[in-house]
Structure formats: C-alpha cells, structure tokens
Amino acid sequence: MRFDNQTVLVTGGAGGQGASHVRAFHAEGATVVIAGVTGDRGDALAAELGERALAVRLDVSRPDDWTAAVDTATRRFGPITVLVNNAGVQNPPAAIEDTAPEVWERTLGINLTGQFLGIRAVTPSMRAAGGGVIINIGSTMGYGGTALYAPYVAGKWATRGLTRSAALELGRDNIRVNAIHPGVIDTPLITEPAGAGAAPIADFYSPDPFAVPRLGDPADVTTLLLFLASRSAAFATGADFVVDGGLLLGPALR
C-alpha cells in the first residue's frame, strides 16, 4: 500500500480521468478527497469508496472554494500530502478572432489559474505534513499549436512553466512538483463535442499513425501518476512526463 496514511486531493475527481485516479489512490491505501463541481457524481463515488473518501464542492477558479475545500479535508483527514491538479475544460472550437473574451477567461481560469490556486492553497498543509507531491495535468497540446483551440493550448503551455517555478520554490520544503501531459485519452473531454455543432477532438486525432495505435485509457495516465506520487519517484521534480502513445513523435513506420 504505497499511500497508507496519506491524504490525496484530486480536482475534477469524479470525471473520466479523475475517477480513475481517485479509485487507484484509494485502492493503494490513501484517503481521497474528490473535489469538483459535479456534486452528485462526487457524492456517489465517495459513497462507493466508503469512509476513506470525501466529496467536496470546489470551483478551482475561485480562491474561497480552495480555502474551504482544504480546510474541510484537513479537519476530516489531516494534512494533504498529494494534490492532483486534474480539473480541466476544453474551449468550443473557434478562431482567435471569433473567441469571446469570456471563453478565454473561463478556459484559463479553470485550466491554469485553478492549478495556481491549488498549489497556493495546499502548500501550508503539505509543510505541516513534512512534505508532499503536486502533480499538474497538462496536455500534449502544450507542446505545439492547434488551430481553433488557442485558450486550451495557451493554458497547457503555461502549466509547464508553472510546474517548474513551483518545483524550485517548494523543493526545500520536501514538496515535489511534476506535470503529466496526456495525449488523446478516451474520456468525454475528447470524445464528446466541446460546443454545439462542433466535432469532438478525437475526430482530429486518429490513432492510426501512433506508435501505439490506439486511444489512451485513463488507466494509462493513472499508472504514471501513482508512480510520480510515490517514493519511487523521490528524485523527480520540475519535470514533464508525456503519455501519448507516440503522438508527438509523428507517424510510425508501418
């Protein structure tokens, strides 16, 4: 049990990837805090897992929500030792000139500011615990440009810089900070349209040319996440870990 006596907070914890992460940490002994805006799904997952699970309401773009969520979790379970900044949204596809400022602000508010606020909120709790691990979930879109998805791409690029800065600030507090950048993972974020009349992201990323020719599964990300959060990765911080089946490499030899 790699995570006995640890409290793990996962944002977007009832979603496609988030629920996979929550269940895996719980199975390895952790107490899990399922944070997000999908109250019914979070409550159902907490009820399924039992007394070592708690669902909390958290809009990651709101500082007060972070304060309340961390306070609730620490009162119930003690200091937070692992934060998974997993919550994210995709902007409806549109050219930059046609993207409303409020769409830009909402996308960055959740995908980037939410991670900044999460790091800010849990740092005192991790110091009280003697250290911890923060893992930011980015995207392979943080390694290039994608037409019609500028808000999402910009936020994922920025996640990489935020991760490095946080790692340098918190390393001497025994807090490690890393980022995972998934490719095309089989979750509603990419298999369902991001806006009315839009095609799903998955339609633009056929896995046929990938070195590993399939869509990713949430478990592919979860397995790497558990390793990075464990003592086995004690010397890794400020790093980017790509799990994309070879998407960024280009077409594989058939």
Keywords:
7 helices; alpha/beta; Rossmann fold; seven-stranded parallel β-sheet
Write the layout of secondary structure elements.
Blueprint: E1 7-11, H1 16-27, E2 31-36, H2 39-49, E3 53-57, H3 63-77, E4 82-85, H4 101-129, E5 132-137, H5 150-170, E6 175-182, H6 188-191, H7 218-229, E7 240-243
How would you summarize what this structure contains?
By secondary structure, the protein is α/β, with parallel strands linked by helices.
Structure description:
The N and C termini lie far apart (41 Å). Helix 1 (16-27) crosses helix 7. The mean pLDDT is 95. The radius of gyration is 17 Å and the shape is globular. Strand 2, helix 2 (39-49) and strand 3 (53-57) form a beta-alpha-beta unit. With 254 residues, the chain is of the alpha/beta class. It has helices spanning 16-27, 39-49, 63-77, 101-129, 150-170, 188-191, 218-229, and strands at 7-11, 31-36, 53-57, 82-85, 132-137, 175-182, 240-243. It has a single domain, classed as NAD(P)-binding Rossmann-like Domain (Rossmann fold). The chain is built from seven helices and seven strands. It has a seven-stranded parallel beta sheet, sandwiched between helices.
CA-based gyration radius: 17 Å
Count the domains: 1
Flag low-confidence runs.
none
Number of helices: 7
CATH architecture, by name, is 3-Layer(aba) Sandwich
Morphology:
globular
Strand content: 5-15%
Structural class: alpha/beta
Quaternary structure of the protein: single chain
CATH superfamily: NAD(P)-binding Rossmann-like Domain
Q: What order do the SSEs take from the amino end to the carboxyl end, as H and E?
A: EHEHEHEHEHEHHE
The CATH topology is Rossmann fold
* Sheet with the most strands, sense and barrel status: 7 strands, parallel
Can you list the strand order of the major beta sheet? 3-2-1-4-5-6-7
What's the total number of strands?
Answer: 7
Query: For this structure, what is the CATH class?
Result: Alpha Beta
Quote the average pLDDT. Answer: 95
Distance between the termini: 41 Å
